Amino acid sequence: MKSKYTTIFGALLALALLAGACGGGDDSDDQALIDAVAAQISADGDVPPGVDVECMSAATVNGLGGAAAMEEEYGLTVDTINDGQEPDDVELPVDDARSMAEGMLDCGLDDFMVDAIVGEGISEDAATCLLDNIDGDAMRDSLAAQFMNSADAARIGEAADAAMGESLFASVSECDISLEDIGF
User: Fold this and answer.
1) How many structural domains does the chain have?
2) Degrees (nearest 5) of the Cα angle 73, 156, 52?
3) pLDDT 10s digits, 119-166
4) Which pTM was predicted?
5) Which of 85, 92, 145, 183 lies 20 to 30 A from 173 at CA?
6) Domain that holds residue 169
7) Rounded Cα–Cα distance for residues 176 and 63 (Å)
């Protein structure tokens, strides 16, 4: 049962790893870094429709503590990013990863996920209902685990997957769809 769920949401959350999280940098160094991250994401050409690249880039910079912290803690600067170093390759502490993932979910990923679920043959209303009823903390943690060291990622990711699975099954009755509709 878990494999279909993991396939749907795992693929969607993996696409989110194209960047970081949503927010806004005030200072010019932060903005220069946001612009560099946005250019890097856009150059990849893998941005799903409806995902706000500027938002994702700002969230990356803000989630990693701003330009000064990114340079000091992770060696990320405008120059290193322009040279190809990717912010999503950095392993973050749990709280930082959660903060960054929380912002990512506000950058157009909800619409993208609804569209992907609709692509699986579920109506848009049912897909929206499912997404609205999925455990938000579990979604955040599942995404955040992608940015953590392997020990934290395994522990938090497994708990998040279990909670998302439970909330998905609970949502089935709430959204008046059958298990067959979601591939079980």
Assistant:
1) 1
2) 65
3) 888 888 988 898 888 899 999 999 899 888 888 999 999 999 999 888
4) 0.73
5) 145
6) 2-182
7) 37
